[in-house]
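User: Reviewer 2 asked us to show a designed sequence for the structure in our supplementary figure. I'm pasting the structure tokens here. Could you produce the per-position amino acids so we can include them in the response letter?
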């Protein structure tokens, strides 16, 4: 037992192993290909055995019976294919559906005629002419014309008029030829026939003219977009029917026609070509709008448009030659000279009208070409002007870029001279971006640090003094969380350079906010203030020393004697040194020793003898003995 899932895979319940099957769409495509191939084979097979029958069946009656039986089969195959081609457009194009359907109906009429003909000629052994078969044959011609009409699109008004004139010239010339060589002789050779028989005899040449009109419409009024193969096969089918009927009528007049001969293959060939036309259209199934399988107007001739355009004039020349031959008495005319002259005159008038339209069209095209050339010249002038403006813009841009590069160079030089560096901080990516001058402040380069970008953590660890890391982090965090879009700040901190020297930086910060009020970018300038800080410290130190001297000087001015001066001096010095333990020693040259003169919380019960000569000027004692200056301990 098995079940099928929606993917076209069958799983056995026992083993649960998937068994792949052909998808439904693949079956449909395969089936369509088989039907197409089978239909094509049937048509070729029927045509092949028809030719073989004519070649190899010697008995004329058997050959005639064989072809009479085979003709309805060919018609039936063509009917099925044509009607199927029409059904392919049931939901796409009503016009195409009607066109191919009516062509199928015309072949139904023709098949009924072949069936009646075969029954009369083979079964009843009677002459099939005139008979009901001729009625079905006569219905075939206008029905085929109607089918071709529905396959065509209506061209524009101007094109439609020119095509109508071309078709009219062809039809008038063909009517003159048919009237002189077929219709006239039929009326002259068979004057004793009944009116019905004569009408039937005349119906076939007239029907061929109808088919010629359909072929002319197909040649001159084909839509701009049309599939290739169906049109070719349809044209061959019409042409084959016209030629076969014409030769049949001529052979009937001269008595040269024999049933079951090669001429009968012409009607079979026409039916096969109708089937091939429907088969080609049925296979494509995409109609006249398929851009990959389309051909331009006049597609029957394809690359021979010139031949088609001159065809009416060739027929005019032929009609004029016929008029001359008839007028000079060199040819017997089946129609009156007046009728022939009127027909030639109509063709000439149509040709003149056609030329007038062509001249008008050429004049219009020349005007359009002139206007187009003027537009092109105007566009060329505009393009040249635009090129000049573009060149000017390019030159100006080059100047601006050069000025920008020069300005950037000056800025870099100014930053270098001012010992400043520019930086940016992306709060979203947590990335600092520095320039070369910034790295110069730290005695390093971008190459040594691995590029112009680094994370905030690495920057703090790499360049900020350990005791200032928290302070710098807080300042960056304040810039990141502030709600003030105009926020700016300035602060100073210590740095550690690449050579481990400690320096000082002053930092100016600005921020950029997003539309949501979030800080997305922090940028600023850092400049080296190490020299200024050291200078400030030195100045502070010197000021302290001067203040001490000033205080001592003030204190000493308050004493009258040395004994009064020494306590004041020692007290002032100890206060400046932030201590309360000290003594003043004086050098006694007579005793050659240092004696404590005034002490504060310091031992004073010992003297210091003079040191040896080699230790003079060494240490406090040595300095005191060497120079005789007092000193404070």
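Assistant: Here is a per-position design you can include in the supplement:
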């Amino acid at each position: 037992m098995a079940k099928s899932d929606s993917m076209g895979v069958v799983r056995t319940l026992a083993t649960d192993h998937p068994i792949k099957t052909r998808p439904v769409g693949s079956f449909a495509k395969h089936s369509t290909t088989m039907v197409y191939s089978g239909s094509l084979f049937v048509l070729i097979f029927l045509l092949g055995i028809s030719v073989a029958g004519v070649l190899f069946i010697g008995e004329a009656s058997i050959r005639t019976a064989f072809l009479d039986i085979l003709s309805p089969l060919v018609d039936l195959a063509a009917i099925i294919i044509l009607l199927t081609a029409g059904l392919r457009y049931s939901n796409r194009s009503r016009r195409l559906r009607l066109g191919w359907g009516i062509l199928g109906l015309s072949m139904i009429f023709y098949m009924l005629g072949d069936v009646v003909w075969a029954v009369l000629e083979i079964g009843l052994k009677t002459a099939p002419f005139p008979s009901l078969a001729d009625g079905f044959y006569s219905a075939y011609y206008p029905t085929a014309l109607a089918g071709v009409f529905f396959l065509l699109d209506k061209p524009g008004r101007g094109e439609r008029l020119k095509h109508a004139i071309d078709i009219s010239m062809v039809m008038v010339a063909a009517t003159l030829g048919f009237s002189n060589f077929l219709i006239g002789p039929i009326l002259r050779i068979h004057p004793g026939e009944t009116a019905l028989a004569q009408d039937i005899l005349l119906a076939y040449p007239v029907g061929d003219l109808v088919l010629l009109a359909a072929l002319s419409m197909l040649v001159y009024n084909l839509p701009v977009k049309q599939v290739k193969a169906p049109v070719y096969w349809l044209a061959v089918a019409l042409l084959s029917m016209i030629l076969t009927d014409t030769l049949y009528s001529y052979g009937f007049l001269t008595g040269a026609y024999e049933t079951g001969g090669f001429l009968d293959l012409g009607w079979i060939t026409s039916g096969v070509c109708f089937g091939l036309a429907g088969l080609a259209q049925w296979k494509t199934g995409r109609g006249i709008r398929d851009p990959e399988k389309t051909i331009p107007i006049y597609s029957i001739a394809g690359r021979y448009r010139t031949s088609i355009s001159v065809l009416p004039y060739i027929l005019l020349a032929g009609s004029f030659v016929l008029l001359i031959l008839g007028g000079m008495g060199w040819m017997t005319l089946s129609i009156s000279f007046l009728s022939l002259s009127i027909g030639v005159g109509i063709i000439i008038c149509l040709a003149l009208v056609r030329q007038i339209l062509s001249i008008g069209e050429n004049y219009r095209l020349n005007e359009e070409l002139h206007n187009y050339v003027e537009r092109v010249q105007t566009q060329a002038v505009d393009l040249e002007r635009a090129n000049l403006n573009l060149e000017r813009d390019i030159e100006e841009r080059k100047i601006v870029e050069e000025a920008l590069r020069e300005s950037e160079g000056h800025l870099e030089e100014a930053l270098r001279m001012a010992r400043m560096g520019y930086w940016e901080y992306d709060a979203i990516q947590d990335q600092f971006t520095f320039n070369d001058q910034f790295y110069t402040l730290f005695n390093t380069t971008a190459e040594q640090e691995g590029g112009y970008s680094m994370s905030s953590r690495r920057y703090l660890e790499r360049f900020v003094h350990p005791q200032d890391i928290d302070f710098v982090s807080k300042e960056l965090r304040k810039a990141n969380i502030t709600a003030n879009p105009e926020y700016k700040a300035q602060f100073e901190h210590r740095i550690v350079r690449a050579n481990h020297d400690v320096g000082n930086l002053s930092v100016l910060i600005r921020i950029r906010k997003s539309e949501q009020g979030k800080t997305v970018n922090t940028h600023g300038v850092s400049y080296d203030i190490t020299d200024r800080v050291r200078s400030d410290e030195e100045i502070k130190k010197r000021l302290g020393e001067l203040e001490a001297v000033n205080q001592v000087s003030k204190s000493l001015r308050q004493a009258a004697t040395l004994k009064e001066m020494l306590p004041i001096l020692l007290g002032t010095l100890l206060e400046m040194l932030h201590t309360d333990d000290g003594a003043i020693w004086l050098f006694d040259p007579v005793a050659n020793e240092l004696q404590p003169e005034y002490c504060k919380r310091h031992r004073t019960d010992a003297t210091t003898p003079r040191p040896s000569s080699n230790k003079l000027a060494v240490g406090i004692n040595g300095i005191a003995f060497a120079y005789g200056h007092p000193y404070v301990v």
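For the response letter, you might also mention the following. The CA atoms of residues 99 and 147 lie 4 Å apart. DSSP finds 17 helices and 15 strands in the chain.
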